[in-house]
Design brief:
The protein is α+β, with helices and mostly antiparallel strands. It has helices spanning 19-33, 104-107, 127-142, and strands at 2-5, 10-11, 39-46, 52-59, 71-79, 82-94, 98-99, 110-113, 116-119, 148-157, 169-177, 181-188, 191-202. It has an eleven-stranded antiparallel β-sheet with strand order 1-4-6-5-3-10-13-12-11-9-8, with helices on one face. It has a two-stranded parallel ribbon with strand order 2-7. It is globular.
Length: 203
């Protein structure tokens, strides 16, 4: 088992670790630890919000270990012929930094039509930031709410997101499970690459 401390910063005016930063941090560490291997399928499940820093623990057997205390998220990633599975665990170290995030740059390039949101153009943000923001916009258009917010909680991809995805993504809503959990399909350059799930969290 490997364990790596992570150092998160709050995104924009949020006081919790954003799901896009969880995805990016996990993939960054996998690329460092397994340098030279090709990232394949990805599954990420976020169970709760994290308000403090986290440690990353994983094993290379492809089997998820028992859920540890203060678990925030679990993941499984294909790396060539190896599958790596692990957890993100919240620890007692406070997050002391913050960085700017202008989501309107993404919103300005998006269009919602029926059950689908599309983007055309470059925002300067990562593909996971674009995908999460687009899905949030789609939910706010389809399922507006005043006393709760839609949060990114799960991702299933056939491959890792690539920089070229950012400017030509489409998110299509597929299912709403009792207005508590939703499933949407992700398309890049008109090809399906996975699914993203959002959960409704009370304010």
């Amino acid at each position: 088992m490997e364990r790596i401390p992570l150092n998160f910063s709050f995104k924009g005016n949020r006081n919790y670790v954003h799901g896009s930063d969880i995805y990016s941090s996990i993939l960054k560490q996998m690329n460092i630890q397994y340098y030279g291997k090709t990232l394949g399928s990805i599954r990420l499940s976020i169970h709760t919000l994290a308000f403090k820093d986290c440690d990353l623990i994983w094993i290379g057997s492809g089997k998820l270990m028992d859920k540890p205390d203060r678990a925030v998220a679990d993941f499984m990633i294909g790396l060539d012929k190896v599958k790596v599975a692990g957890w993100l665990i919240e620890i007692d170290r406070p997050i002391t930094s913050r960085y700017d995030y202008n989501e309107t740059r993404i919103e300005a390039l998006c269009k919602v039509r029926d059950q689908t949101i599309t983007i055309a153009g470059k925002t300067g943000y990562s593909p996971i930031e674009v995908a999460v923001s687009m899905t949030k916009q789609l939910h706010n258009a389809l399922f507006p709410t005043k006393d709760a917010m839609w949060i990114f909680t799960r991702l299933e991809l056939v491959r890792a997101l690539q920089n070229s995805d950012s400017s030509d993504l489409a998110i299509k809503h597929k299912h709403n499970f009792n207005n508590r959990l939703t499933k949407s399909e992700i398309f890049s350059h008109e090809s399906p690459i996975g699914h993203i799930y959002f959960s409704l969290v009370k304010l």
